[in-house]
Amino acid sequence: MATLKETIRLWDEGVAACDKGEFRTALDKFMEIQDPSAKILFNIGTVQMALGQVQPAAKSFSSTLEKDEHLSVAYFQRGLAYFKCGRDQEGLRDFQESYQRLRRNALIDYKQLGLRYKLCACEVLYNTALVHFKLGQTAQCREMLLEAQKVKIEPRHNIIDRALECLERHQTFQPIEMPSNVLFRPASSIIQNLEKKDYLGKAKVVSSITDKDDFSGFEPLRRPKESQAKSLDAVLRPEGTPYRVVRDHMPNSADELEVRVGNMVFVAAQVEGWCSVSFNNKIGLVPAVCLEEMEDKRGKGFLDRLGDLLHWSGKKDEGRIRDSKVPEPPRTKPPSPPVRPDPPARLPPLLMPPKKALPTPPEEDTGFFTPPSAPPNRAPPPLLRGQSDNGFRDNEEAPISPPARPPPPRPPSLASELPVVVKVHHTDSYTCAIRSKTGASLRDLTVMVANKFEMSEDVVTLWYKKDGDEALTEVVQEDDMSDAWGTVREGQLTLWLKDRKDHDEGVSPMQFSKVVALYDYEAKEPGDLGFMEGDVITIMSQVNEDWLEGRSRGNVGIFPAGYVKPCDK
Known about the structure:
By secondary structure, this protein is α+β, with helices and mostly antiparallel strands. It has helices spanning 4-19, 23-31, 38-50, 54-67, 72-85, 88-101, 121-134, 138-150, 159-168, 188-192, 226-236, 302-309, 414-417, 442-453, 478-485; strands at 107-109, 118-120, 241-245, 264-271, 274-279, 282-287, 291-293, 310-312, 321-323, 419-426, 431-437, 460-465, 472-474, 492-499, 514-517, 536-542, 547-552, 555-560, 564-566. The strands form 5 sheets. It has a 5-stranded antiparallel sheet, with no helix packed on it. The protein has a 5-stranded mixed sheet with strand order 11-10-14-12-13. A 5-stranded antiparallel sheet has the order 18-17-16-15-19, with no helix packed on it. A hairpin with a 2-residue loop joins strand 5 (274-279) and strand 6 (282-287). Helix 1 runs antiparallel to helix 2 (23-31), helix 2 packs antiparallel against helix 3 and helix 8 (138-150) packs antiparallel against helix 9. The protein is elongated, with a radius of gyration of 49 Å.
């Protein structure tokens, strides 16, 4: 099985090849990935579409949806592949499913998932209209194009207007397709960490007493080679006889050296009162009267002494470097440690001798009077006049003792605090899940469902199924809500949501109807809904006689009722 690093590397190479237009190479890279994810399968289908392999592309998009059934763009691509194959009915179903997956949004931006593409609702409606036109359903085609014209966003969507003109002339139009280089891409931060990074770098030899020594690793002490030993000895032992400087000498020419009293120089030759000396890696002339010969106490070279100190032991049981001056370890075994006597057994508490009381230290004279303690077996002193048994006088209040500590609170019932998942099925839209605590009231659940579905609380009615009954029962009061909570299974409660259509119950007839804007209205305050003339607005609730609340182009807000009229059905 391929590693994650290998999978990401092939993924990145396939995307890079596709950017260069090498679709065949990109397809080979993607096909090498074992157990591909939904993103990789989508990339394979997109590259196959670019190569004209429509049937394999449809299968790849089907595999993508098997791993991620909520990917709206995959339904869009598979519908386009079916359309090109001539499978119009299947393509129409995929386009309709893609529009449903948009969840009434104007667009879905897949940038966070690594796909640099925005799937717009108007594009899905445009391709749906094209399939209707191919099937001969002109009325449905016109309806889809008009709906797409209302929700177009970018200038490139003006192709919808041209499609309407083609429809008037009974001419076909081309579908909207995704670019061939729009693929799911791995994150750049992951790509940068594929290669190993040397944060410390490689060590470099800056200075060494050994000539041409570039070793920078770690190893035990090693014996230098013969060539290195000669160069090292030349550094430690310069040629010449050592002399000590007894007089300072300042140079009068470029051939002479400056020396001070106490310096040690090495004389290589002496001619007519002048000595050729070596000092501080320099060679020059110094007068002989300024020098005094000294005894050479250097003895043998450093490497010779090092060789004497280090030698290999010939014994089989040692096999290590040993200093010749270090004596051999003793062969006899060390003596055994002395045996300590066992501690005395501890006596039981009743048999332990009584502890002697320590003498009380004498009290220091602090300048304050300390009353003597009462001797034992003596009656307590009589109470003073006006003093009570508690030690306080009659005109003084005795300290109030603190009340008894209350018992700890009982822990709440776990059954009433455990959260459950409430799954709500809307008859006209989709299913939604809400997290709630067990035993929530009907009012609380109604508010949560209304906020989740962006509906008014007045039109929300909740229904449930009793155990063993397929018919739906309306939740009217709290007793019905308690019966509904009794149907919780494995931490999940299933409810059904229906819109209240009865006008006698006080529900505004404007709710969930559609109106058309008569004039342009610009939002002046936060919470207003701005629109253009001709926009279709879905009414959500009636604020008062003059203002309505509605939704248009993905925005929700309030607007004047005099700016709209009922939509012709």
